[in-house]
Specification:
The chain has helices spanning about 1-10, 25-30, 35-50, 55-70, 75-90, 95-115, 115-135, 135-150, 155-170, 175-190, 195-210, 215-230, 235-250, 255-270, 275-290, 295-310, 315-330, 335-350, 355-370, 375-395, 395-435, 440-485, 485-495, 515-520, 525-545, 570-595, 630-640, 650-655, and strands at about 500-515, 550-555, 560-565, 605-620, 625-630, 645-650, 665-675, 675-685. It is of the alpha+beta class. α18 (about 335-350) packs antiparallel against α19 (about 355-370).
Length: about 700
């Protein structure tokens, strides 16, 4: 999923357009001082804009020359254009502070000229920068400002800005709102018969379906995007969509098709001379080879990705390339090289402020140091992973909107304070005029102003502290709520004060239970017992998060989770089984580790059934999200009727995953289940052909 989102971010920006211009001719025009300044500026502007993707350093040099001449003749339009090119070029180089600085200068010129379209473009570009930084609050603010300026006057731009707003919701996992924005964008494009915009919108909607596990619809929309891009001969659009298709095929373990589409994307990016796109394609191809355990070819592609990212100055892609390279070395058990590239990835990701890359780099370093027995270092990075993961999960939409509202309130307070100061000043001036005691009144005014300033400072400080405290409390309560409830249920509860129960079909319910828990608890003291349960359940929490499964609850030594809430799909059936197998693998590995230390350890049964459930909130005090129905009872019987160290699934679940090549099944025939009679059951494990 991470890969798909990063691919999608490329779609927010207008497609890379390399006009076939005669560079020598433009340089001659620029160098000819006899030509009008406007002609020379147009030439240097086109040189700068055309070079921005192929060679951002050249674009910066050209745009600086353009800006200097525009300043000399005091031409605000060309100054604004030069600043915009500088902002885009620094953005491509991943130097976000400089990109923001230049786009803000361009925006200032556009405001001065009252150029609505130019202002919208600047707001949009600032949104792109903040989005890449991961500051979704500011990104959403700037995209919305851009949309407000053109929504009723410029439909083509409005379509783009709807898409960018949808991208913010997508990045935060708010898929219904993201889909709503993309559909608005598509509707405008269809109304205008804008096939290029339609192609982008199809691609974006495809990403929504991919992220919700509906790969069939995702591929359908990607196919529509491909058809239009082929018709338009839009190589950049094709390259991006091919890479999205490659990502799906890789996830489906269809490596031949994944490689085919990855190489198609690479060929197109080479034709365009787009270094960031070429690097990204090499990264995807490397991931495909790594998934096939062809580490030499994977590493060769990652090194190309790394080299191109360094040459183009694309720091964001460079951080990803470091992570790819480090992972490949770790798989080859070259721990020293893996640690070296992992440290580079972490330092660069911290410099760029990209939390997801920091988490991935820290997780990699944790596994590297753990594999080499450097437990202190491993623990340090494991703790860093937990902190960064919490930080990522806390970045929810309601928190963002609260921050925006807070900013509005502070702005209103600031305006109010300024008015209050103005009123007080007028009152003192009236007193001076009335009494005619200039010197004494001046002293009074001075004392009053100082007193007022102190009072206002104290008030502002108090208000700021109070609001920060309230905001922190709200954030903590929101995070606690999200730790208890799914995001959509938490939002409904906050909005309506209650959450209606809902019926869901095709939900895979997973139960686990430790064997001989009571007997084992008698051999351990209470503190060690709780610590051991916590250690196991903490690992389970990480596993269900990895596979996109909803944890429901724990009851004593039993753990319950469900896949397919709120959207059921073939991926949710498969992922629930994969999660159960990984839980069993963890328990067996942990047992072996504790056995070598002569310590007792748990063994476990796991069972899965798929069916219809009702989900909702139970109670009004110490409430929790729960699911009910016959399917839940049946899943519990799958666990109790299973065997230690195995994953037992119902016939209903078996029918849904029987064609998955990654699994192998052992039929148990009809097995007596308490309260259910005889039921068809199967043991499931990973195929040795994997």
């Amino acid at each position: 999923m991470k890969k798909v989102v990063s691919l999608f971010i490329c779609c927010w920006i207008s497609a890379f357009i390399y006009a076939q211009v005669n560079t020598d001719s433009l340089q001659k025009v620029w160098s000819d001082n006899s030509k009008p300044d406007s002609v020379r500026l147009a030439a240097i502007d086109e040189l700068a804009w055309t070079a921005r993707y192929k060679n951002p350093d050249s674009a910066i040099a050209y745009a600086t020359l353009e800006l200097n001449l525009a300043k000399q003749i005091d031409h605000k339009f060309w100054q604004a254009k030069a600043c915009n090119t500088l902002g885009v070029s620094w953005y491509i180089k991943s130097d976000y502070p400089k990109a923001i600085e230049w786009h803000q200068q361009s925006l200032a010129f556009m405001k001065e000229m009252r150029e609505t379209g130019g202002m919208a473009t600047s707001y949009n570009n600032l949104g792109n920068v903040y989005s890449d930084k991961g500051d979704f609050v500011k990104a959403l603010q700037h995209y919305q400002r851009a949309l407000d300026l053109v929504e009723t006057t410029n439909k083509p731009k409005a379509s783009i800005y709807y898409g960018n707003i949808g991208a913010i919701y997508l990045a935060q996992g708010v898929y219904p709102k993201a889909l709503e924005q993309f559909q608005k964008s598509l509707a405008i494009c269809e109304e205008l018969n804008d096939e290029e915009g339609m192609a982008v919108a199809y691609n974006n909607i495809g990403i929504i379906y991919y992220n919700t596990g509906d790969t069939s619809n995702a591929l359908s929309y990607y196919g529509r995007s491909v058809d239009l891009n082929q018709k338009l001969e839009d190589k950049q659009g094709l390259a991006e969509t091919y890479l999205n298709i490659a990502s799906i095929k890789k996830a489906q373990a269809d490596y031949a098709q994944a490689l085919k589409y990855g190489q198609k994307s690479l060929a197109l990016q080479r034709e365009l001379g787009n270094a960031p796109g070429i690097a990204e394609a090499y990264g995807m191809i490397g991931e495909i080879y790594a998934a096939r355990n062809n580490l030499p070819l994977a590493l060769a592609n990652f090194k190309k990705e790394l080299s191109l990212s360094e040459e183009s100055g694309n720091k964001d892609r460079l951080a990803v390339a470091y992570i790819h390279t480090a992972n490949a070395y770790m798989q080859q058990k070259k721990s020293s090289l893996a640690a070296s590239f992992g440290q580079k990835a972490l330092r660069l990701s911290e410099q760029l402020g990209i939390i997801t890359n920091q988490r991935d780099a820290s997780d990699l370093l944790y596994h590297v140091y753990k594999s080499t027995g450097q437990n202190t270092e491993a623990l340090k990075y494991h703790e860093k992973v937990l902190v960064l993961t919490d930080s990522i999960e806390a970045a929810e939409t309601n928190k963002k909107l609260a921050q925006m509202e807070f900013a509005k309130v502070m702005t209103a307070d600031s305006i109010k304070n300024e008015k209050e100061k103005g009123i007080v000043k007028k009152e003192y001036q009236a007193e001076v005029s009335q009494k005619g005691r200039q010197r004494n009144v001046a002293i009074y005014i001075g004392i009053a102003v100082v007193a007022l300033a102190v009072a206002l400072w104290i008030r502002l400080r108090y208000v700021h502290r109070a609001r920060v405290a309230i905001h922190n409390e709200k954030t903590q309560s929101d995070n606690l709520l999200l730790n208890i409830l799914p995001a959509d249920i938490a939002e409904e509860l906050k909005t309506k004060g209650r959450a209606e129960p809902r019926e869901f079909e095709g939900v895979s319910i997973l139960f686990t239970d430790f064997k001989g828990f009571t007997d084992l608890s008698e051999t351990m003291n209470a503190k060690d017992l709780v610590a051991e349960i916590h250690h196991c359940f903490e690992a389970f929490d990480g596993i269900v998060h990895k596979y996109g499964i909803e944890k429901i609850k724990t009851i004593g030594d039993a753990y319950m989770a469900a896949g397919g809430l709120p959207v059921s799909s073939p991926e949710s059936f498969r992922n629930t089984v994969l999660a159960a197998l990984e839980m069993q693998s963890f328990i067996e590995s942990h047992r072996a580790e504790r056995g070598s230390q002569h310590k007792p350890a748990f063994r476990m049964r796991a069972g899965i059934h798929t069916g219809v459930v009702v989900a909702g909130i139970a109670g009004v005090k110490k409430f929790h999200y729960d699911i009910w129905g016959d399917a839940v009872n049946t899943a519990s019987r799958m666990e109790s009727s299973g065997e230690v160290g195995r994953v037992n699934i119902s016939e209903a679940t078996y029918e849904l995953i029987r064609d998955e090549a990654m699994f192998q099944f052992q039929s148990r025939g009809k097995v007596q289940a308490k309260g259910k009679g005889e039921m068809g059951m199967y043991f499931v494990s990973l195929s040795h052909l994997q």
